[in-house]
Amino acid sequence: MDMDLLIEFLVAFCLVVSGVFGFVGSFGLLKLRDTMQRLHSPTKASTLGVGGVLVASMVYFVAIKGDFTFHELLISLFLFLTAPISANFIAKTYLTRSGRDEELPATASEYGWSIHDDPPQISDQPKE
Amino acid sequence: MLKRLMPHPILSVALVLVWLMLVNHVSLGNLLLGAILALVVPALTGPYWPNRPKVSHPFVAIEYVLVVLWDIVVANIQVAMIILFKRNADIRSRWVTVPLELTSPEAITVLAGTITMTPGTVSAMLSADGSCILVHCLHTDDPDGVRDDIKARYERRLKEIFQ
User: Fold this and answer.
1) Is there a contact between A120 and B128 if contact means CB atoms under 8 Å apart?
2) A28 CB neighbour count, 10 Å cutoff
3) Domain check: are B80 and B121 in the same one?
4) N or C: lower Cβ tally within 10 Å for chain B?
């Protein structure tokens, strides 16, 4: 009986943590000033938001319902694969459209950033 | 012949595992269906992914995943603190250029994803020749420190894994 109570506390704790981080993530979207800053809050604050719900779901199903599913692990795997890629697309689109090129630092090589400059061609390279 | 049939063995194994985890039930039929997927998907996507990446230190990879998971939790708390308790006027965002020593596209992809998921940084763009990566920092007073951190913490491990 005590065990059940403990598990319920754990599940509730995870849910509250995820709720708080989900809220902070959405609040950041409203509060921060420009697109690049706003990009930070959904990519990070919401990872723990979703993660908390998934951990709560796993603990609940393993400890109380007694069956184990991999689905939560898969959801977090897919999230880790897709969140950085969509953030990268948004950043690139923003940089292309904003026209604030002079704010960007210089690259460390003779080629510019990929939205401004073509990649080196094979014909550019010195013949051996 | 084997290379034609299975251009990416690790991808094939991963597909079978993901399929079994999706149906959440191991049986001969599911295993067979997973095996068919593991043969068909790499064959169809093979032309877009011609080189087979080398993965040399699997244990470093496990260490890397644990380090990144820990950093994600820390990143969440740091970013939440910045959002909640810093006034907008005090948030100093910076662009940071990180020169790359990694050359394989897979390693750079993993690094870019890691940068986006971890403390206060989002990776935005590569240079045209892939020799450095543009990182946006939500709040920092020390851009060089951020760059050195990324290089020492993530790139060093990725270099061990992929080279």
Assistant:
1) yes
2) 24
3) yes
4) N
**Tokens at residue A48, please?**
């723990």
Domain of A60? 2-99
Give the ipTM of the model, two decimals please: 0.78
Tell me: do B27 and B64 sit in the same domain: no
Range of the domain at B135: 58-162
Q: Which of B18, B73, B127 sits opposite A113 (nearest CB)?
A: B127
Look at B124 and A107 and tell me if their CB atoms are within 8 Å: no
The string of DSSP codes covering B124-153 is: EEEBTTSSEEEEEESS-S-HHHHHHHHIII
How many domains would you assign to chain A?
A: 1
Backbone angles phi, psi at A118, to 5 degrees: -80, 150
The string of pLDDT tens digits covering residues B12-24 is: 888 888 888 888 7
Distance, in Å, from the CA atom of B135 to the CA atom of B132, rounded to the nearest integer, reads 10
A104–B18 CB contact, under 8 Å:
no
- CA dist., res. B18 & res. A76, Å (int): 12
pTM of the complete model: 0.81
Residue A22 lies in a domain: yes
Q: How many domains does the structure of chain B reveal? A: 2
- Asked, for residue B155, whether it belongs to a domain, the answer is yes
